[in-house]
Design a protein that fits this description.
By secondary structure, the chain is mainly beta. The chain has helices at residues 125-128, 162-182, 220-224, 256-263; strands at residues 2-10, 13-19, 33-48, 53-60, 74-79, 90-102, 107-115, 118-124, 144-148, 150-154, 192-193, 199-200, 210-212, 229-237, 243-250, 267-268, 271-273, 276-278, 280-288. Strands 1, 2, 3, 4, 5, 6, 7, 8, 9 and 10 form a ten-stranded mixed sheet that branches. Strands 12-19-14-15 form a four-stranded mixed sheet. It is elongated.
């Protein structure tokens, strides 16, 4: 079961409000609004002290209060950890995971993992290093407080078993760590790929930004016929930013294939929604002009 808790700091008075599905929160003013996204279920934690990364495999409780089903719903990976993880190299059991964020556009601040042993808190070094935002969530009773540089949150369908998810997560963690070492320092977090269906750009979905362009090849027969004009296409930009599909919306027969060949060479910045790189459907135009 997923629960959001709103911790509101107003005029020195803290209030905790439990929010259910379908509730609407209206926020006015400049007071810090703390948000805790709470997930309860069974987790398996794998910690590599030598390489300073932690993987949490989470089997979330089912809707309606049903117990976890033994399949991993969410994989959380944290890299470049500073501090000592208190639960050892491998731990498994029931836990509550609280993801901390602020509503003022700062986004995620950190995470808290509560087990029968106590609460472990971890904060983004880039956000909470000076204590400014991490202080809103620090628990004086926490048994450990750590910092990390990079975090990712991945889901998969269908949900894998714990052993299958552990194999994939360890491979992912090793790739991130080895890349960091190869480049001689920190690497920026990469958006995790999504296997979801493409979403259409517009509204809450930003239009993808082209970062690699290519000019169309002008077909000889089109030049001989002096065919020119604008071809409009609908394209699907994959989660990695490549154009994986294109179809003509308004075309010029002698130029349509050249337009399709052209846009498939373009590259876009990945479109990220809720931390996930998603495929996006948008439109593109290719202009053919006889010189």
């Amino acid at each position: 079961m997923l629960t959001a808790l709103l911790l509101v700091a107003l005029a020195g008075q803290n209030q905790t409000v439990s929010v259910k599905n379908g509730d609407t929160v209206v926020y006015r003013g400049a007071a810090p609004l703390r948000i805790v996204h709470r997930t309860e279920g069974n987790i398996r934690a794998i910690y590599n002290a030598a390489e300073s990364w932690l993987v949490l495999l989470v089997d979330v409780g089912e809707p309606g209060g049903a117990p976890p089903d033994g399949r991993v719903d969410v994989t959380l990976t944290y890299d470049a950890i500073e501090g000592v993880w208190p639960l050892g190299e491998r731990w498994e059991g029931h836990a509550t995971i609280d993801e901390y964020s602020l509503a003022q556009g700062i986004g995620r601040v950190g995470v808290g993992i509560t087990t029968a042993t106590g609460t472990v808190q971890m904060f983004y070094a880039s956000i909470g290093g000076a204590g400014a935002n991490a202080e809103y969530f620090r628990d004086p009773k926490a048994i450990a407080k750590l910092m990390f540089d990079d975090g990712s949150n991945r889901t998969s369908a269908p949900p894998p078993s714990f052993d299958e998810a552990e194999r994939d997560a360890l491979q992912y963690a090793n790739i991130v760590h080895n890349t960091r070492i190869l480049l001689g320092g920190k690497v920026p977090p990469s958006p995790r790929a999504s296997s979801t269906a493409p979403v259409r750009a517009g509204g809450n979905v930003p239009y993808p930004k082209k970062i690699v362009d290519a000019r169309p090849a002008y077909p000889a027969d089109a030049q001989a016929a002096r065919a020119q004009g604008v071809v409009i296409l609908e394209i699907t930009v994959g989660a990695d930013g490549s154009v994986r599909d294109a179809r003509i919306l308004r075309g010029i027969p002698l130029l349509d294939q050249a337009a399709i060949d052209c846009v498939k060479q373009w590259k876009y910045e990945p479109t990220v929604l809720n931390g996930v790189a998603v495929p996006v459907i948008t439109t593109a135009t290719v202009n053919f002009t006889i010189q």
